[in-house]
Design a protein that fits this description.
Layout: H1 3-21, E1 26-27, E2 31-33, E3 37-38, E4 42-50, E5 52-60, H2 62-73, H3 82-105, E6 110-112, E7 116-119, E8 125-126, E9 132-139, E10 142-152
Helix pairs in contact: 1-3, 2-3
Length: 154
Amino acid sequence: MQSELINPFMMAAHSVLETVLGHAPERGDPRLDKASTTSEQVNATCGVTGQVVGHVMIGMPLATADKIASSMIGQRVTTFDQLAASAIAELANMICGNGLLMLAEHGLVADLTPPTVIKGSNVQISTLTIPAIGIPLVLEEGLLVITIALHKAK
């Protein structure tokens, strides 16, 4: 996968997380998968269509999602409910939207589908045949993994 498709989303994630949480994430070692899957407990996924197509997934353990949602809504989340899911969806929307804006600055125009939040301990989400790169981000709240599965449309 080309770095021109990855870097905008990583810069967007860094910026959004620093703004929302008040501190910058620390980037872990990326992993390249031929057909990536994620089995995190909470996942927000956004589809990308246009000159760039694919998916961007943001996955995390439930405890991390609770802490991030707590920061975003300004009250402690003890049960991952609809409000907490909405906060995580908005986080994904902000990261993906900013990533697409950065892509557009380089001449690649794409649209974003509304985020979908999937919660469950035995759920697997696959990018099917689109190669993906998973990049862990270490936060005070816990681990967050951004999986980017994008390619230029033919």
